[in-house]
Design brief:
0% of the residues lie in helices and 53% in strands. The protein is mostly beta strands.
Length: 149
Amino acid sequence: MTEYVVTRRPGQGGLQDRMASGEGGRPHAGSAITDGRCTNDVRGTMQYGTLAEYKFQPTSNPGSEKFEIWRGGANAYTVAYRVKKGVVFEPHGHPGWEQLTVVSGSWKVDDRVLGPGDVAITPPLQKHREEAIEDTLVIISVGNNDLTG
């Protein structure tokens, strides 16, 4: 049996998780999540972050900010984007699969408009254009093709 425990570290604002095995194994310390970001690739350890802790930074595309939630390598990452109405991401592709989830607002991928809870999954290298139809928060995960599950 595996038990996951999430605790807040007093005064640090981050989260720390740990995995404890109920099968006689000793507790395994997970990585700290600083400012909402999973800081280490700790395989087998569940990690948590909260939107309230994200420290968004401006991107090179005016009107958009991003926060890198997790990075597992050059082509495996999860990013939250906060984007103002009318901002366009010109046609681009990614080296791995992309999963985009709309958290709030309205987002257009090519000719399809997505709302809160909607998901778009794009195959590797497929060009697509994105646009914020209104102020929007999206979470995008790009997966490296060589990752195994």
